[in-house]
Amino acid sequence: METKYGKTVKVAAPPPAGVRGIVVQPMALVARQFFKSLWRPSTILYPMKERLENPEFREEVKVESGAPIGVGEIWDNYRGVHALNIKTCISCNLCAFSCPDTCIEMVNVDAGGGKSKKCPQIDYGKCSFCGFCSDACPEGCLTMTPAYTITTNNRKNMVYSPERMFEVFKVKLPQNPTRIALPANEDVILLDQDLCIGCNACARDCPTKCITMIEIPRAEAKPGEKLPKRIWKEPSVNDSECVRCGTCISVCPRECLYWGARK
Questions:
Q1: How many helices (H) and strands (E) does the chain have?
Q2: What values do phi and psi take at 18, rounded to 5?
Q3: Is the pTM of this model over 0.90?
Q4: What is the CATH number of domain 75-170?
């Protein structure tokens, strides 16, 4: 004990010297930790036998407070490897469009019946795990899971194909919540009727098939006036089925479709 700044403080005793300090005390500490680990092991046998993203193992692992590691809101919202449900993907391209790292590429996959469709392929060598892609997915088919192991000694293995992410989806890991409904104030797709030529490109490429071409009255030419060449049909958008992917706007040759406020 000694006095410092008017207060009595306890001074740590100097470490023992000689054989006791060099051999006996360190060996006693090691033995104490060894016997303690026999009934409360602190090492996870990763990666061959125990993995935290395994739902069964997550229930078994405990911390000192008695609560399981990884059970709760924080762990289930962890942004790890993506899971993709190929069956519900509509090839809207919103995930690739919203990716700030340009690490998503739309590639062809077998859709059955001799048909193919485009689904996202992710390069984890570029991905920053921001979650923008899963937030933008209108169908909730691209989500993020607590799977965290993507280490490899080959850069090519960092590229996850749609089929590889579909295998992750089949494991049924906890997935981040997806967007259920569109915001009430979100813009809708509007049409400039004077520019539209009725080419059907928007309805043809719409991933949700929410655009139909409706017939409109054929205009009569005034004396000396020549009518523009066009098909006398215009697109009608079913707003309740539209996912706001913008494909129709991007394929329109006359740029007659555009985003606008609800009327």
A1: 9, 11
A2: 75, -155
A3: no
A4: 3.30.70.3270
